[in-house]
Amino acid sequence: MNFPETITTALLSGYSVFTTFTVEKDKRVKGFSKHLERLKINSEKLFGITPNRKEIIEQIELFLSQQPKNKKILVRIALFPENFSIVFPEKIEKIQIIITGRELSIPTKPLTLELHKNIRPLAHLKTSNLFSSLQTRKKAHENGYSDSLFFYEDIITEGPTWNIFFGKKGKNPEDKDILFFPDPSKKTFLDGFTQMLLKENISTDEYEIIITDILKKDLHQFDYCAIVSSGVGIVPVESIDDIHFSVNSIKKLQKIYNEIEGEEIK
């Protein structure tokens, strides 16, 4: 792909914000408005300006018109400063939009994760500064794992491109399962929309939700866990380092997420 010369410096420096989501076969997107709102907020925080919604929609529609029909497409919207200068990064007058994507591919097997100490710069924002994240993924692959899982100050945070949650089964059949989500208040990870949508659609009659710090030393106390992202939905985790989990307990949660209705792209 040939990018405009005016944004090459921003591309090469990774100075951008982005969002990624799955476009379903009916051209609907779960949490579409949330994605665009976060993109706007992040762009305003980092660059001081943002493109308007209409401009972004037009670019998405143009991109989708060139993709295979009746396929789920993983779409990435990136915003870059035009005429960017690494000497004067504060001088930004216009934002460029780049849409990329590919046919959706979801893991078919439960994941094995390797713990890595890591925190992204401005971790609570969705920026394209993914070097350290992808390096940990590379190391995890080399060590025979599916992916890496980050911790910071011994607190579990996120993965390279996804969030994570943990679950405890009820002691009795009539008891609720308890779901534990990492606490985003310290801004050490991105509080993603997939887990937000999941939490919003979970029945409180069946599950109790706790937002808390999850410590490395406590991982063995959980019965199951899963990663969550707009690119893969909900995928069970088989193990973290040498700690193993049940992989069947998230089927109901997968069903809940899959039944969330998407929004039209407009």
Describe the structure.
This protein is α+β, with helices and mostly antiparallel strands and 266 residues long. It folds into 2 domains: 5-103, 2-Layer Sandwich (D-amino Acid Aminotransferase, Chain A, domain 1); 111-260, D-amino Acid Aminotransferase, subunit A, domain 2 (D-amino Acid Aminotransferase, Chain A, domain 2). The protein is built from 6 helices and 14 strands. It has helices at residues 8-13, 32-47, 53-65, 131-142, 193-201, 251-258; strands at residues 17-23, 28-29, 73-81, 95-103, 111-117, 147-152, 155-156, 163-168, 177-182, 207-212, 224-229, 233-240, 243-244, 263-264. Strands 5, 6, 7, 8, 9, 10, 11, 12 and 13 form a 9-stranded mixed β-sheet that branches. A 3-stranded antiparallel β-sheet has the order 1-3-4, covered by helices on one side. It has a two-stranded antiparallel ribbon with strand order 2-14. The radius of gyration is 19 Å and the shape is globular. The model has no long low-confidence stretch (mean pLDDT 92).
Write the layout of secondary structure elements.
Layout: H1 8-13, E1 17-23, E2 28-29, H2 32-47, H3 53-65, E3 73-81, E4 95-103, E5 111-117, H4 131-142, E6 147-152, E7 155-156, E8 163-168, E9 177-182, H5 193-201, E10 207-212, E11 224-229, E12 233-240, E13 243-244, H6 251-258, E14 263-264
Parallel strand pairs: 5-6, 5-12, 9-10
Antiparallel strand pairs: 1-3, 2-14, 3-4, 6-7, 8-9, 8-11, 11-12, 12-13
